[in-house]
């Protein structure tokens, strides 16, 4: 029989469970820079994030060049994100049962092998579209462990006192990969094609495996009991039903992932249709967004006191959606760069607080389960990508983005009215 989840009223006291003690005066971002275990987990996040964006950009450019289909471009992004929706809750339960370090190594190894096989197929001239789709799904399966595994390890390693700065710095590095990944993806694709791009990705995933093996981590002990997958997932939902703020938090996650982030899958389409630019300058569109997000997340790392988590999360999400709407309405490449740079500040508020709020308010005994449910909500993104892909085939990429961002703003307003706790 599964253990009952703690009452939400105790969540603040429970949130620090399993973390090591932090001494007074060592709670800011600067203390994390000299924390060896944080450095390792941070580096793994950087490598995973960079390869994610590198692959998405290169795959999008290749698929569109081969098929001229915005729907297929969107489908590749869907396959990359789908495992979060399908397996996020299961991964969360498993991560509460099996050593998270072992799961981290396994997921990185899966992504390394996948990239290596696809590189071999591309270099030998045998790569087909279905191979790319399957590879995107398998890589997404590895990525689906990030919240319930790597970020949970990170949160437990730094402790509650440094949770806000740690998640903000991790978000900053992840957003920096939006600078590195798309730019590198565009340049690599132009220089060595899709096969060479996959080969580089495989090698970098192997580096991440090596770093993960060196992580020192002792998973908090739990009382032994029979494994009950569905009962333990149900426990996570039961806890959420009693916490309206967390339900609202997950609602914002769904909205942003369905109506804002799908824009990234359309950047190759808009770059060709509206701006008529080459792959390198297509990559630059995502690069400036990442630069803004990195700068914003570093600012948040120094100001993210717990009482500011929710306002930062809400207003960051709102700014992001508004900026993508503005991007969809401009025909100027230079103005598009400026708007996407500003959108990065919104992404910083959203992404840095997303994990911090969920981890900080989750009781230790169901922490990975709730982080897994967060992954499920992030996995709603494929629905938005399919939606924008179909609209793009019908109306064009820019108009499609206009439609979905207006839908997102309406949904966000309705949610904030329904859950007023989000404004407090």
List the helices and strands and how they pair.
Blueprint: H1 11-14, H2 29-33, H3 36-67, H4 70-97, H5 100-123, H6 129-143, H7 146-158, H8 163-213, H9 229-241, H10 244-259, H11 263-275, H12 279-303, H13 309-329, H14 333-361, H15 367-378, H16 381-395, H17 397-418
Would you kindly provide a written description of the structure presented here, covering whatever features stand out?
The protein is mainly α. It has one domain: Growth Hormone, Chain: A (Up-down Bundle). Helix content is 80%, strand content 0%. The chain is built from 17 helices and no strands. It is globular and about 55 Å long. It starts with 10 loop residues before the first helix and ends in a 6-residue tail after the last helix. The N terminus is likely disordered.
- Helicity level, as a percent range? over 70%
Instruction: Note poorly predicted spans.
Output: 1-25
Overall geometry comes to globular
Helix run count: 17
Keywords:
424 residues, mainly alpha, 17 helices, 0% strand
Q: What would you say about this model in short?
A:
The protein is mainly alpha-helical and 424 residues long. The chain is 80% helix and 0% strand.
């Amino acid at each position: 029989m599964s253990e009952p989840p703690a009452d939400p009223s105790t969540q603040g006291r429970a949130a620090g469970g399993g973390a090591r003690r932090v001494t007074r005066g060592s709670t800011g971002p600067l203390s994390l820079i000299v924390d060896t275990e944080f450095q390792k987990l941070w580096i793994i996040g950087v490598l995973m994030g960079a390869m994610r964006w590198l692959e998405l950009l290169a795959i999008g450019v290749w698929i569109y060049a081969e098929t001229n289909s915005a729907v297929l471009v969107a489908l590749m992004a869907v396959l990359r994100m789908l495992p979060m929706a399908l397996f996020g809750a299961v991964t969360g339960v498993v991560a509460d049962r099996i050593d998270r370090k072992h799961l981290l190594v396994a997921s990185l190894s899966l992504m390394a092998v996948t990239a290596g096989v696809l590189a071999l197929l591309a270099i030998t001239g045998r790569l087909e579209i279905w191979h790319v789709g399957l590879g995107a799904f398998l890589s997404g399966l590895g990525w689906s462990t990030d919240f319930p595994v790597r970020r949970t390890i990170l949160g437990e390693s730094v402790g509650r006192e440094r949770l806000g700065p740690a998640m903000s710095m991790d978000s900053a590095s992840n957003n920096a990969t939006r600078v590195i990944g798309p730019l590198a993806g565009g340049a690599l694709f132009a220089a060595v094609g899709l096969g060479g791009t996959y080969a580089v990705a495989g090698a970098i995933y192997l580096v991440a495996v090596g770093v993960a093996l060196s992580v020192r981590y002792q998973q908090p002990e739990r009382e032994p009991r029979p494994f009950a997958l569905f009962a333990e997932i149900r426990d996570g939902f039961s806890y959420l039903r009693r916490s309206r703020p967390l339900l609202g938090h997950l609602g914002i996650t769904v909205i942003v992932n369905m109506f804002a982030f799908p824009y990234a899958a359309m950047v190759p389409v808009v770059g060709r249709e509206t701006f008529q630019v080459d792959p390198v300058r297509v990559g630059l569109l995502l690069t400036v967004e990442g630069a803004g997000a990195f700068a914003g997340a570093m600012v948040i790392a120094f100001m993210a006191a717990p009482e500011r988590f929710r306002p930062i999360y809400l207003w960051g999400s709102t700014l992001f959606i508004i900026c993508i709407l503005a991007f969809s309405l401009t025909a100027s490449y230079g103005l598009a760069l400026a708007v996407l740079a500003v959108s990065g500040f919104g992404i910083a508020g959203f992404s840095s607080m997303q994990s911090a709020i969920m981890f900080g308010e989750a009781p230790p005994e169901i922490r990975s389960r709730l982080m897994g449910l967060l992954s499920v909500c992030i996995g709603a993104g494929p629905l938005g990508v399919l939606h924008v892909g179909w609209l793009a085939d019908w109306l064009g990429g820019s108009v499609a983005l206009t439609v979905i961002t207006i839908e997102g703003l309406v949904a966000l307003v309705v949610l904030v009215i329904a859950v007023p706790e989000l404004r407090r």
